[in-house]
UniProtKB/TrEMBL annotation:
Name of the protein: AP-3 complex subunit delta
Gene Ontology cellular component list: AP-3 adaptor complex; endosome membrane; Golgi apparatus
Origin species: Ceratodon purpureus
Highest taxon in the source lineage: Eukaryota
Biased composition (Basic and acidic residues): 857-867
Principal localisation: membrane
Length: 922
């Protein structure tokens, strides 16, 4: 005794633990470890005060630092059994916090919970119910359903409310409890205490949201409560229920539209207001009055500045976007203001709505607004705005764009946005428009020239795709340049182009080549039209060409030593074409150079057409071409010398000297500095050696083999003949308030064959779990077994379980009509191989629960008696079976209740004073 008192005297209290933990600036983990060691010793004490204090500290440590307290589960049960309420409360708190379905000591709490739920102290009962709701498992639910059922009839409203709320967890864990307690749950909707009614409606709301069809015949009761409700929480739950019911029974909408509008006009609670708006957007879209009131309330609340109200308002407007586009039009100003909100989620919601309002009539105005916001937005949202513009304007072959000149200028403005990161997409669309919309190529070249002349864009890695596209466009369509090629040459050859990567720089050099060829061709044409006497003008033009040559040499010559092979090769090609123009006094050499450039000009003048990315797959193989699916047929070739000889024999490890001697390869002679003949001979030898891998050619030539004409070229030539004008996008949600005025004809956009062949995305298929199916089936049976109960609404509307209105009938007349039917419904229990026909009828008043025919938890069989007396399974009513896994988990419960089974008592039973089984159990 003395030692226990000393331990209690020197034991650190809960306050000491908290104060010490707050003082630990460093070494907190060591302090927690030491505290846990103390708790492990103290919790084994036989003194209840020491044990409770230790458990209290352990519970705090678990909440504060996530310490494991599963090792103390038995000690928690010991504290729960203490008689003093303050001690018992600590144990119940620890159990609620640490116990779960798999805790092994839960079986020890069954009798304890039953005892406390039958206590005279309402606080002990409340504490036991709350703990039960947290640690409930199927075994506990089966054992304590009768106690919960009894507590629902308690004279104290506090206990009735707690017992009603715990029913939801009981139903989900143990669906057979529905047969016992569901009718009493419905009775609580008429309870004298509003809190009990609110608790019952809350449970029914959660169940209705999972399976609304089972509760459709309760709509009159819900409607009666909604009309007279003055409790915001109760009204919110009822509105949620009707939001689920109206989706499966639209005719309910005309009935609840009035009460919903009254709540929206009168209530000051934003939660109830937005719940009413949500219900309108779910099932009352056909009621224009309710929708107009919702839009008015949304605009009013979104203008208050509360970010939560803005988000809910935008979400509600998104639900109205497809069915009522005028709602977005009327709220356009409020939506646009949300783009400048500090919350990124609100900005994204507003952006989605704005892009949903875009049509051919307002696309230019909308894009200009978004670009203005993109200039001042942060980098993340700026790129989202730009991405939305690019995706919306380019969809379905630019169907929303009627003025491509305007859209090209928009693409150029997007490229100059400081935080823009969509350079590749902007460049792709510029090239796409230049190839597919012929009438706007001059504008595309002009925009590309402006991008190339801007030196600030060269230092931004995100814009390399735009610059690459611009360089290709000005080179390909240089004849459409508005101010001549020389200025473009200066842009392509400015010193800062060295900042570009090699791949982009190579395109720049190719553009320089094309621009210079065009420039020289213009110079030749001008000289032919001038008179021989105007030597000064000709000299001036010659000087301009000379300046272009000097400019190219000065900037391209250093690139001959580039580490990138493609840049080096293209630089050499450009300088090679400039060799005849090194001395303008040598007329013959200059003339030969002009001839070469004229030939290149004819090649570059051939127009390129758009080609689909899948065009190569449509190319048919020529007849006689042998293709091998497996490259192993080529033999053991390595990357350098191993080749396949023309004889068909595979020869490995062939050296270059052996290959040269076999084919009598002649090295280039000194008399042929150009190497043209030697190159042709080398190519001929290579073709002779690999003849089976060359496409057949019609002409026998020692020169380069001619290119094969692919079907893609024919497709590109035939594309303009099969063009159809783009139809107006009828699916746009924005309704035009005025008739469309006549406008200029939209430019033709070349269509590709497989542009619209995009794979579809299938919606995910969701499946209900087995437990949910058990709950819903049991509830449907409970409601249907209770009969088609007559529910009087305000105007006498009655909804049948199938959603069909029926006339008002009294209960007496309905019961008499049911008694006239010769068909009766029975509930049979599958026990082994028993004959179902031997199941007693349940329509008799004297029927009682038999101890030998206790319902099995793994099967409930619904049997219907026909006119001839035979019985048959009602498959529509549904026989539900528990899975093998659920069956096994309940074996433990059955073994723990063998004594009750021997005495004929079921663990799930009604109170003792209710011997006749109520109708809802049948």
């Amino acid at each position: 005794m003395a030692s226990t008192m000393m331990e209690s005297l020197f034991q650190r209290t809960m306050d000491d633990l908290v104060k010490g933990l707050r003082l630990q600036m460093i070494g907190e983990s060591r302090y927690l470890a030491k505290a846990l060691e103390e708790v492990r010793k103290e919790i084994k004490s036989t003194d209840p005060i020491i044990k409770v204090t230790a458990l209290q500290k352990l519970t705090y440590l678990q909440m504060a630092s996530g310490a494991d307290m599963s090792w103390a589960s038995f000690h928690i049960v010991e504290v729960m059994t203490l008689t003093k309420f303050s001690h018992k409360k600590v144990g119940y708190l620890a159990a609620s916090q640490s116990f779960h379905e798999g805790t092994d000591v839960l079986v020890l709490t069954t009798n304890l919970l039953r005892k406390d739920m039958g206590s005279k102290n309402e606080y002990e009962i409340s504490m036991a119910i709350e703990c039960l709701s947290r640690i409930l498992n199927p075994d506990l639910a089966a054992a304590l359903t009768s106690e919960v059922f009894t507590l629902m009839a308690s004279s104290r409203s506090f206990i009735r409310k707690k017992a009603t709320l715990v029913l939801l967890r009981v139903f989900l864990r143990y669906p057979e409890a529905i047969r016992v307690a569901f009718k009493r749950l419905l009775e609580k909707m008429d309870d004298a205490d509003p809190q009990v009614v609110c608790a019952a409606v809350s449970v029914l709301c959660e169940l209705t949201l999972k399976d609304p069809r089972a509760y459709l015949n309760l709509a009159p009761d819900f409607y009666r409560l909604l009309e007279k409700s003055s409790n915001n929480w109760l009204s919110i739950k009822l509105v949620k229920i009707f939001g689920a019911l109206t989706q499966i029974e639209p005719r309910l909408g005309r009935k609840i539209a009035g009460p919903l509008c009254d709540h929206m006009r009168k209530t000051n609670a934003k939660s109830l207001l937005f719940e009413c708006i949500r219900t309108v957007t779910l099932g009352l879209l056909d009621h224009e009055g309710a929708v107009k009131l919702c839009v008015e309330k949304l605009r009013e609340n979104m203008g208050l500045g509360d970010p939560n109200l803005k988000y809910l308002g935008l979400k509600a407007l998104a639900a109205l976007m497809d069915s009522h586009p005028w709602a977005l039009t009327e709220s356009k100003e409020v939506i646009i203001k949300c783009l400048s909100d500090g919350d990124i989620i609100i900005q994204r919601r507003a952006l989605v709505l704005i892009m949903g309002m875009v049509s051919e009539n307002n696309v230019e105005e909308t894009v200009q607004v978004l670009l203005r916001y993109a200039q001042s937005a942060d980098a993340s949202f700026c790129n989202e705005l730009v991405s939305s513009i690019l995706q919306t304007c380019s969809r379905a072959r630019y169907e929303l764009v009627s003025d491509f000149g305007w859209y090209v200028s928009v693409l150029a403005d997007i490229a100059r946005i400081p935080h823009g990161e969509h350079g590749d997409e902007v460049g792709r669309q510029l090239v796409d428009i230049a190839l597919r919309v012929e009438s706007v190529r001059t504008d595309v070249v002009k925009a590309s020239r402006g991008l190339l002349l801007d030196p600030a864009l060269l230092g931004r890695p995100a814009l390399q795709g735009v610059l690459c596209a611009a360089a290709w466009i000005v080179g390909e369509f240089i004849e459409r340049a508005p101010l001549g090629p020389f200025e473009i040459l200066e842009a392509l050859l400015q010193p800062r182009t060295r900042l570009l990567p090699f791949s982009v720089h190579a395109v720049y050099l190719q553009g320089v080549l094309k621009v210079f060829v065009s420039y020289a061709n213009q110079h030749t044409s001008l000289k032919k039209t001038e008179q021989e006497s105007t030597t000064s003008h000709a000299a001036m033009k010659g000087g301009s060409l000379r300046a272009a040559v000097e400019l190219i040499k000065a900037n391209v010559a250093p690139l001959v030593n580039s580490v990138d092979m493609e840049v080096q090769e293209r630089a050499c090609n450009v300088l090679g074409l400039l060799q005849p123009f090194e001395d303008f006094n040598d007329a013959d050499q200059v003339q030969a150079g002009f001839g070469t450039l004229a030939a290149l000009s004819e090649v570059f003048s051939l127009e390129l057409g758009p080609v689909s990315v899948h065009a190569q797959g449509r190319v048919q193989l020529p007849d006689g071409l042998s293709t091998e699916d497996n490259l192993d047929a080529l033999g053991p070739m390595d990357s350098s010398d191993d080749v396949l000889l023309h004889t068909g024999d595979v020869r490995s490890s062939t050296t270059y000297r052996e290959w040269e001697a076999e084919f009598n390869f002649q090295a280039p002679s000194k008399e042929d500095p150009s190497g043209v003949n030697s190159s042709a001979a080398l190519l001929q030898q290579h073709r002779h050696r690999h003849e089976s891998f060359y496409l057949p050619s019609d002409t026998a030539s020692l020169d380069y083999p001619p290119p094969q004409l692919t079907p893609s070229a024919a497709t590109a030539e035939a594309a303009p003949q099969s063009l159809t004008e783009s139809s107006i996008f009828n699916g746009n949600p924005l309704v035009r308030s005025m008739p469309r005025q006549a406008k200029a004809r939209r430019p033709v956009v070349v269509a590709l064959d497989d542009e619209d062949d995009l794979p579809g995305v299938s919606a995910p298929v969701s499946k209900k779990g087995l437990k949910d199916e058990l709950v819903f089936s049991a509830i449907r049976k409970a409601l249907s077994a209770d009969g088609n109960k007559d529910h009087d609404a305000a105007d006498g509307l009655e909804i049948s379980p199938l959603g069909e209105p029926s006339s008002r009938k009294s209960r007496h007349s309905r019961r008499s009509a049911k008694n006239k039917e010769k068909t009766s419904v029975g509930v049979g229990v599958g026990l082994g191989n028993e004959d179902v026909s031997q199941v007693p009828e349940v329509g008799k008043k004297e029927h009682r629960r038999s101890r030998h025919h206790r319902p099995s938890r793994h099967e409930i069989l619904v049997v219907k008696t026909n006119k001839d007396g035979s019985s048959s399974e009602n498959e529509n009513e549904g026989t539900f079976e528990l899975s093998e896994k659920t069956h096994k988990t309940k074996q433990k419960h059955r073994s723990s209740h063998r004594h009750s089974q021997r005495s004929g008592k079921s663990p799930v039973s009604a109170p003792q004073n209710t011997d006749p089984i109520p109708d809802f159990l049948l």
